[in-house]
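General statements about sequence and structure are easier to judge against a single worked case. In the encoding step, the backbone of a single protein was reduced to a row of integers, each denoting a local shape. The record that follows shows the chain in one-letter code together with its fold in token form.
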Amino acid sequence: MDELNEQRQQRIKKLDHLRQAGVAPYGARFEVKDRAGLLIKLHGEKTKEVLEQEKIPCTIAGRVVALRRFGKAGFAVLQDGSDRLQVYLKKDLLSEQAYTVTEQLDLGDWIGVTGVLFRTKTNEFTVEVHQLTFLSKALRPLPEKWHGLTDVETRYRQRYVDLIANPEVHQIFATRSRIIAGIRAFLIERGFLEVETPMMHPIPGGAAAKPFVTHHNALGVDLYLRIAPELYLKRLIVGGFPRVFEINRNFRNEGISTIHNPEFTMLEFYVSYADYHDLIVLTEEMVSALAQQILGKTVIDYQGQQITLTPPWRRWSYHQSIIEVNKLDPAVLSDRTQALAAARRLNVPVDSDDSLFNIVNAIFEETVEPNLQQPTFITDYPIEISPLARRKDSDPSLTDRFELYIAGREIANAFSELNDPLDQRERFEGQAAQREAGDEEAHLVDEDFLRALEFGMPPTAGEGIGIDRLIMLFTNQASIRDVVLFPQLRPEK
């Protein structure tokens, strides 16, 4: 019998002992009156004498994460999601049945206790337990060396164990929740309406990505999991909502990396009568305000470097960034032969049959992006890689678009929206031709969206912000898997 199975069998025997003693090993309701974190905050600095005088009652519940027995007494440490607190279990203070429970306790079990706060002989802040209720028996032991668990495979695959073992992981996801709540409050305060749009689309659109395909039995049609909500949100602008946003789950059938997960969270918002310059200011205000609200500062530490989120942030045009970083002749940007030669000289991986725009974009991604550590708005993207953005009035080959980069990765993408239905049709058809040529990420022609545009969409600016990547930045995490509760993994062996 392997060690895990043997320990499990021992725990099942203890479960039977509890039942024989009249204790339900999987209890019902328990009224929790206090939280460990708040008790420590309110009373954790009080002296032994003050605690003895005040006799502060408390009732807490949690998981047993440490256990020490000696004679007719013992100590356990309970973890309740807010903090950890030691409890003192003494036979003389408990009923016979309750003391029987203490004899059957294992690490991982859940109990509820009522008692008073005091300090031990070693001055440790503790609950002296007078009543004990057994709540749930853990049949599996915590993994070996569970405290401070570092095995990445176990942490991601068994997130519940990770949360037990590493209190700082709890804090990451509590911070995640606060960031999303802060974003929602920021936008609502500025007159935005939160909406929900479909997650299954008849035509994938709103981004260049390979979709997941599903099938709707009742309708007898294939549908695509949402790669972006953009085209539906712009339909709402057409319908007369001037400011809308959605905090949404998107799905893209792409590779997995430290900054890519096939299922991710995105904020998208749209503002009528605005352009991308307005969104630059709004983005600076929102991110810096969130940093101040969540972290109490706008200069933060991320992976060994300081990132300054205090506005204003750098504005740098797409083409100019490529020229300046690589000290290139501007002619490279308009001549495919020169661009291909430059890419090979810079060791940028490209194919000999790639288009000029794909070659130039590969140079940008390989040589410019990694250097964008401080917040930087890259502006004025070429029209060929911006099928939904409005042309620049001063140069129709470029678009009114920016991407925000922080710590070498894209955080946001925004543009003045294309609201000319004839221009949009032409671009869709160009994308469809690319798809026919083998580009699985190119857009299809969305006739219903074109019909919506023909009803008239006012000048509009729209933006998408990768919430997972923003949370990575705010919580100092190097991998997106550390800010997603249940990241996608290969099947368990």
The longest strand covers residues 57-70. The two ends are 21 Å apart (CA to CA). The chain has a mean pLDDT of 94. DSSP finds 15 helices and 18 strands in the chain.
